[in-house]
Amino acid sequence: MCNLYRMTKGHAEVANWFRADDQLGGANFGDEVYPGYPGAVIAQGALVSMTWGFPLQRKGARGQPLKPKPVNNTRTDKLESFFWRFSFAERRCLIPLSAWAEAEGPKGGKTRSWLSLPDADLFACAGIWRDSEEWGRCYSMVMTDACGAAAECHDRMPVILRPEDYTVWTDADPETARRLCRPWEGDLVLDRTPEPWARGGAQTSLL
Question: How far apart are CA 116 and CA 137, in angstroms?
Protein backbone atom coordinates (compact mmCIF):
# COMPACT_ATOMS: atom_id res chain seq x y z
CA MET A 1 0.00 0.00 0.00
CA CYS A 2 1.38 3.38 -0.97
CA ASN A 3 0.92 6.25 1.49
CA LEU A 4 3.85 8.33 0.30
CA TYR A 5 5.57 8.89 -3.02
CA ARG A 6 8.20 11.15 -4.47
CA MET A 7 8.00 13.21 -7.66
CA THR A 8 11.16 15.24 -8.20
CA LYS A 9 10.81 16.46 -11.78
CA GLY A 10 9.66 19.93 -12.81
CA HIS A 11 6.31 20.62 -14.47
CA ALA A 12 7.69 21.25 -17.93
CA GLU A 13 9.74 18.05 -17.94
CA VAL A 14 6.81 15.96 -16.75
CA ALA A 15 4.44 17.48 -19.30
CA ASN A 16 6.95 16.91 -22.08
CA TRP A 17 7.58 13.30 -21.00
CA PHE A 18 3.88 12.45 -21.14
CA ARG A 19 3.13 14.74 -24.09
CA ALA A 20 0.57 16.55 -21.97
CA ASP A 21 -0.59 20.14 -21.83
CA ASP A 22 0.92 21.76 -18.73
CA GLN A 23 -2.00 23.39 -16.88
CA LEU A 24 -0.32 23.70 -13.49
CA GLY A 25 0.58 27.33 -14.04
CA GLY A 26 2.36 28.66 -10.97
CA ALA A 27 1.46 25.68 -8.77
CA ASN A 28 4.36 24.58 -6.59
CA PHE A 29 4.63 21.11 -5.02
CA GLY A 30 7.06 19.54 -2.62
CA ASP A 31 9.08 16.55 -3.74
CA GLU A 32 7.06 14.25 -1.45
CA VAL A 33 3.31 13.68 -1.86
CA TYR A 34 1.06 12.63 1.03
CA PRO A 35 -2.61 11.56 1.10
CA GLY A 36 -4.95 14.50 1.50
CA TYR A 37 -2.51 16.88 -0.20
CA PRO A 38 -2.19 18.09 -3.81
CA GLY A 39 -0.31 16.07 -6.40
CA ALA A 40 0.25 16.36 -10.14
CA VAL A 41 -1.56 13.93 -12.44
CA ILE A 42 -2.14 13.55 -16.17
CA ALA A 43 -5.87 13.51 -16.90
CA GLN A 44 -7.67 14.19 -20.18
CA GLY A 45 -4.37 14.95 -21.87
CA ALA A 46 -3.29 17.63 -19.39
CA LEU A 47 -0.95 17.88 -16.40
CA VAL A 48 -3.15 19.15 -13.57
CA SER A 49 -3.28 19.39 -9.78
CA MET A 50 -5.65 17.20 -7.75
CA THR A 51 -5.92 16.08 -4.12
CA TRP A 52 -4.54 12.60 -3.43
CA GLY A 53 -7.42 10.56 -2.02
CA PHE A 54 -11.18 10.27 -2.51
CA PRO A 55 -13.01 11.79 0.49
CA LEU A 56 -14.68 9.22 2.74
CA GLN A 57 -17.30 10.72 5.04
CA ARG A 58 -17.01 9.80 8.74
CA LYS A 59 -19.00 10.36 11.92
CA GLY A 60 -17.86 10.55 15.52
CA ALA A 61 -19.13 8.53 18.47
CA ARG A 62 -22.02 10.98 18.93
CA GLY A 63 -22.91 11.03 15.25
CA GLN A 64 -21.19 14.34 14.59
CA PRO A 65 -19.54 14.75 11.14
CA LEU A 66 -15.75 14.45 11.13
CA LYS A 67 -13.19 15.62 8.63
CA PRO A 68 -13.30 13.31 5.56
CA LYS A 69 -10.64 10.62 5.33
CA PRO A 70 -8.60 10.45 2.07
CA VAL A 71 -8.92 7.00 0.50
CA ASN A 72 -5.75 7.17 -1.53
CA ASN A 73 -5.39 3.54 -2.69
CA THR A 74 -7.75 1.44 -4.79
CA ARG A 75 -7.50 -2.36 -4.75
CA THR A 76 -7.78 -3.94 -8.19
CA ASP A 77 -10.23 -6.53 -6.86
CA LYS A 78 -12.54 -3.74 -5.64
CA LEU A 79 -12.74 -1.71 -8.85
CA GLU A 80 -16.33 -2.83 -9.41
CA SER A 81 -17.50 -1.61 -6.00
CA PHE A 82 -19.80 1.41 -5.94
CA PHE A 83 -17.11 3.64 -4.44
CA TRP A 84 -14.79 3.14 -7.45
CA ARG A 85 -16.60 1.71 -10.47
CA PHE A 86 -17.74 4.88 -12.22
CA SER A 87 -14.33 6.52 -11.88
CA PHE A 88 -12.60 3.40 -13.22
CA ALA A 89 -15.01 3.18 -16.15
CA GLU A 90 -14.95 6.88 -17.06
CA ARG A 91 -12.01 8.72 -15.46
CA ARG A 92 -8.60 7.04 -15.49
CA CYS A 93 -5.38 9.05 -15.12
CA LEU A 94 -1.61 8.70 -14.93
CA ILE A 95 0.27 9.45 -11.72
CA PRO A 96 3.88 10.53 -12.43
CA LEU A 97 6.42 9.64 -9.77
CA SER A 98 10.10 8.96 -9.17
CA ALA A 99 9.69 6.44 -6.30
CA TRP A 100 7.20 5.29 -3.70
CA ALA A 101 7.79 4.45 -0.05
CA GLU A 102 6.71 1.67 2.29
CA ALA A 103 7.04 1.63 6.07
CA GLU A 104 9.25 -1.07 7.61
CA GLY A 105 10.35 -1.77 11.15
CA PRO A 106 8.84 -2.01 14.63
CA LYS A 107 5.87 0.03 15.79
CA GLY A 108 7.04 3.48 16.80
CA GLY A 109 10.32 3.03 14.93
CA LYS A 110 9.27 2.47 11.32
CA THR A 111 11.54 3.77 8.60
CA ARG A 112 11.12 4.56 4.92
CA SER A 113 11.95 2.01 2.26
CA TRP A 114 11.88 3.54 -1.22
CA LEU A 115 11.07 1.57 -4.37
CA SER A 116 11.75 2.72 -7.91
CA LEU A 117 12.61 1.51 -11.40
CA PRO A 118 16.29 1.06 -12.29
CA ASP A 119 17.65 3.84 -14.53
CA ALA A 120 14.29 5.64 -14.55
CA ASP A 121 13.92 9.04 -12.88
CA LEU A 122 10.29 9.24 -13.91
CA PHE A 123 7.55 6.67 -14.52
CA ALA A 124 3.78 6.40 -14.18
CA CYS A 125 1.34 4.47 -12.03
CA ALA A 126 -2.32 3.85 -12.79
CA GLY A 127 -4.83 6.18 -11.19
CA ILE A 128 -8.51 7.09 -11.24
CA TRP A 129 -10.07 10.47 -10.46
CA ARG A 130 -13.35 12.27 -9.86
CA ASP A 131 -14.80 15.59 -8.77
CA SER A 132 -15.74 15.99 -5.12
CA GLU A 133 -17.62 18.62 -3.13
CA GLU A 134 -15.04 18.49 -0.35
CA TRP A 135 -11.74 18.89 -2.23
CA GLY A 136 -12.56 19.49 -5.88
CA ARG A 137 -10.81 17.07 -8.22
CA CYS A 138 -9.18 14.16 -6.43
CA TYR A 139 -7.39 10.94 -7.41
CA SER A 140 -6.54 7.50 -6.08
CA MET A 141 -3.68 5.13 -6.92
CA VAL A 142 -4.58 1.64 -8.17
CA MET A 143 -2.90 -1.17 -6.23
CA THR A 144 -2.16 -4.78 -7.21
CA ASP A 145 -0.34 -7.74 -5.65
CA ALA A 146 3.28 -7.01 -4.79
CA CYS A 147 6.11 -8.86 -6.49
CA GLY A 148 9.91 -8.86 -6.48
CA ALA A 149 11.54 -6.37 -4.16
CA ALA A 150 8.16 -4.76 -3.40
CA ALA A 151 6.95 -8.01 -1.84
CA GLU A 152 9.73 -7.73 0.77
CA CYS A 153 7.97 -4.61 2.15
CA HIS A 154 4.25 -5.11 1.60
CA ASP A 155 1.72 -7.44 0.00
CA ARG A 156 0.50 -4.73 -2.41
CA MET A 157 2.16 -2.29 -4.79
CA PRO A 158 1.08 0.36 -7.32
CA VAL A 159 0.12 -0.71 -10.84
CA ILE A 160 3.15 0.48 -12.81
CA LEU A 161 2.51 1.23 -16.48
CA ARG A 162 4.87 0.89 -19.41
CA PRO A 163 5.04 3.98 -21.68
CA GLU A 164 3.35 2.07 -24.50
CA ASP A 165 0.40 1.41 -22.16
CA TYR A 166 -0.22 5.00 -21.05
CA THR A 167 -2.94 5.72 -23.60
CA VAL A 168 -4.35 2.20 -23.20
CA TRP A 169 -4.93 2.93 -19.52
CA THR A 170 -6.45 6.36 -20.05
CA ASP A 171 -8.41 5.84 -23.27
CA ALA A 172 -9.29 2.17 -23.77
CA ASP A 173 -12.48 0.46 -22.64
CA PRO A 174 -12.57 -0.72 -18.99
CA GLU A 175 -11.98 -4.40 -19.78
CA THR A 176 -8.86 -3.61 -21.80
CA ALA A 177 -7.61 -1.27 -19.06
CA ARG A 178 -8.25 -3.92 -16.43
CA ARG A 179 -5.76 -6.25 -18.10
CA LEU A 180 -3.02 -3.76 -17.14
CA CYS A 181 -3.85 -4.18 -13.43
CA ARG A 182 -1.15 -6.74 -12.73
CA PRO A 183 2.15 -6.93 -10.84
CA TRP A 184 5.15 -5.28 -12.47
CA GLU A 185 7.20 -7.75 -14.51
CA GLY A 186 10.43 -5.74 -14.61
CA ASP A 187 13.13 -5.06 -12.06
CA LEU A 188 12.66 -2.86 -8.99
CA VAL A 189 15.20 -1.06 -6.84
CA LEU A 190 14.71 -1.21 -3.06
CA ASP A 191 16.45 1.44 -0.97
CA ARG A 192 16.04 0.90 2.78
CA THR A 193 16.83 4.13 4.60
CA PRO A 194 17.07 5.24 8.26
CA GLU A 195 14.58 8.06 7.57
CA PRO A 196 11.74 7.95 10.15
CA TRP A 197 8.39 7.15 8.56
CA ALA A 198 6.30 9.61 10.57
CA ARG A 199 7.49 12.95 9.22
CA GLY A 200 4.14 14.36 8.16
CA GLY A 201 1.16 13.51 6.01
CA ALA A 202 -2.46 12.66 6.68
CA GLN A 203 -4.56 9.75 7.83
CA THR A 204 -4.91 7.30 4.96
CA SER A 205 -7.06 4.46 3.78
CA LEU A 206 -7.47 1.75 1.15
CA LEU A 207 -10.71 0.35 -0.27
Answer: 27
